[in-house]
Specification:
binds iron/sulfur cluster, FAD/NAD(P)-binding domain, 36% helix, 15% strand, five-stranded parallel β-sheet
Length: 499
């Protein structure tokens, strides 16, 4: 585990590095060798043991000096491999070049040509598998962790723009007289709302929850993605004229067809995400103290369950929590458990660290905060007491066999390896499926066997006037992929409405 370095030291080191860089630049442009010699700028973060009890954001962001120094590590590769690693092809070398020159507004404007939500993507994109995974600097060091910190730089300029009131509202075309309904207010829906509003259409977003933002509000915790940043994006959309109808469950409050016919919408976008938690289907899963990660995180994030004195839905008190799974959702649930008062948190995963799908930074942060990883184990039963409350989980031990369809080595149970872990709550974080409500209540809207809405290359569905994108099409994926699909769908809707 990497040693935690205090923010004061990181800032001081960056300042010294910045001064050195300015001196060097006076002598002429940097050579690739000079750039490779610049030390990577670490992200300042709160001290692990203190922050594990706080909801405030763990990573506190680059200073100006750090951003400029880090940007100068970029080799400005002509073939731009990083761009092909980004699902929406952000013009990475171009925006980084502007940061290197201290032109932060120009940098963020370049990003916004392709990405609507840089402050969010800079924080939550799995960069090591995307843009940074392709970076020449990382490849030279044979480690994506050593790549130019594209995500941190993206976050820096987006935060700089917001905090310095430099946000420029997009130009909106004259009113088209057409109405677009957006179902779901996650990154896919918000992107469609922005792009269709820009084209002059009247846009209304229908959201089942009382707050807009989708998983960015109810799933990803405050300590990783401050909710004020998401709400800022929602407010910007309102300023662009987008209307929001919250507590509106399409398929119950109104069907999609009612929205299109009775309410006179000319086109609709479905971005309802993948919010249906998967369970393990093992004995004892109905005991008191077993939660889906979705429920656990929603209670904490959206319903402020941690505020035990005031919340209507307080969180179950648990001192020892076992979390099953190894993706971002599992890391979030485990880290949240500490913040809700747990003294011990174990992540149980049937493979090993190498196969964990979570972002490297989230795994590192969870470990620093004290989460204990138990590899090659998997629950087969949840154990309860006479009151029906969880008192432990029975697990089997595993070893790794041949690679499966995902390319990862598949876990093979070891006979006779049953053993128990004492705990008083278990959180199941094994991914999410799509909620069938909208598909069931919309005749003519086709989905595949997994319940994902089927679309063509422009995100058009089998239902006339309806487009879809994000997790409801892809299965549980990422913010940037949802945003990318929203962009494509909005282009399709705008083209259709222009006819
Ligand atoms: P969502 O964000 O799921 O939004 C869908 C919205 O539709 C929700 O607000 C829902 O209430 C609403 N809705 C659903 N049905 C209806 C209906 N019938 N009527 C009206 N409204 C409806 N991705 C990353 O890139 N990085 C991460 O670090 C990351 N961490 C994650 C952590 C957690 C805990 C979770 C759960 C997911 C995480 N993801 C992460 C995945 C990412 O958040 C999703 O891929 C992304 O939010 C999908 O966007 P979306 O717009 O398709 O749907
Ligand atoms: Fe990288 Fe995500 Fe930004 Fe693309 S949007 S450049 S993947 S951080
Ligand atoms: Fe810069 Fe890395 Fe992209 Fe090359 S691959 S342009 S070094 S960010």
């Amino acid at each position: 585990m990497a040693e935690h370095i205090s923010t004061e030291k990181l800032l001081a080191d960056a300042k010294a590095e910045y001064d050195k860089l300015q001196e060097k630049l006076k002598a002429g442009p940097l050579t690739p060798k000079d750039r490779m010699a610049i030390p990577q700028q670490q992200m300042p973060a709160q001290e692990p043991k203190t922050r594990a009890r706080l909801m405030t954001e763990v990573c506190t962001g680059y200073s100006k000096e750090m951003a400029v120094v880090e940007a100068n590590r970029c080799l400005q590769c002509k073939n731009m491999p990083c761009v092909s690693g980004c699902p929406v092809n952000v013009q990475i070398p171009q925006f980084i070049e502007q940061i290197a020159k201290g032109e932060f507004k120009k940098a963020v404007d370049i990003i916004k040509e392709t990405s609507l939500l840089p402050a969010i993507c800079g924080r939550v994109c799995p960069q090591e598998k995307q843009c940074q995974g392709q970076c020449t600097v990382g490849k030279t060091y044979k480690s994506a962790e050593k790549a130019v910190s594209i995500g941190r730089l993206e976050r820096f300029v987006a935060d700089w723009e917001r905090e310095n009131n430099q946000v420029t509202m997009p130009v909106i075309a004259s009113k088209s007289g057409k109405k677009v309904a957006v179902i779901g207010s996650g990154p896919a829906g918000l992107t469609v709302a922005a792009d269709c509003a820009r084209a002059g259409h009247e846009v209304t977003v229908f959201e089942a929850f009382h707050k807009a933002g989708g998983v960015m509000m109810y799933g990803i915790p405050e300590f990783r993605l401050p909710k004020a940043i998401v709400q800022n994006e929602v407010e910007n959309l309102k300023k662009m004229g987008v209307k929001f109808e919250q507590n509106f469950l399409v398929g119950r409050t109104n069907t999609l067809d009612q929205i299109l016919t009775e309410r006179g919408f000319d086109a609709a976008f479905v971005g309802t995400g993948a919010g249906l938690p998967k369970f393990m289907n093992i004995p004892g899963e109905n005991l008191i103290g077993v939660f889906s990660a979705n429920e656990y995180l929603t209670r904490a994030n959206l319903m402020k369950g941690y505020d035990k004195e005031h919340a209507d839905t307080p969180i179950y008190d648990a001192k020892h929590v076992v979390v099953c799974g190894a993706g971002n959702v599992a890391m979030d649930a485990a880290r949240m458990a500490f913040r809700l008062g747990a003294e011990q948190v174990d992540i149980v995963y049937r493979r090993t660290r190498n196969e964990m799908p979570a972002r490297i930074e989230e795994i590192a942060h969870a470990e620093e905060e004290g989460v204990n990883f138990r590899f090659l184990e998997n629950p087969v039963e949840v154990l309860g007491n006479e009151e029906g409350k969880v008192v432990g989980v029975r697990c089997l031990s595993y070893e790794l066999g041949e690679p499966d369809a995902s390319g990862r080595r598949s876990p093979v149970a070891i006979k006779g390896s049953e053993h128990d872990i004492e705990c008083d709550a278990m959180i199941v974080a094994l991914g999410n499926g799509s909620n069938p409500l909208l598909i069931k209540t919309t005749p003519g809207l086709n989905a595949d066997a997994k319940g994902h809405i089927t679309v063509d290359e422009k995100q058009a569905t089998s239902h006339a006037k309806v487009w879809a994108g994000g997790d409801i099409v892809l299965g549980a994926a990422t913010v940037i992929l949802a945003m990318g699909e929203g962009r494509k769908a909005a282009a399709g809707i705008n083209e259709y409405l222009a006819k």
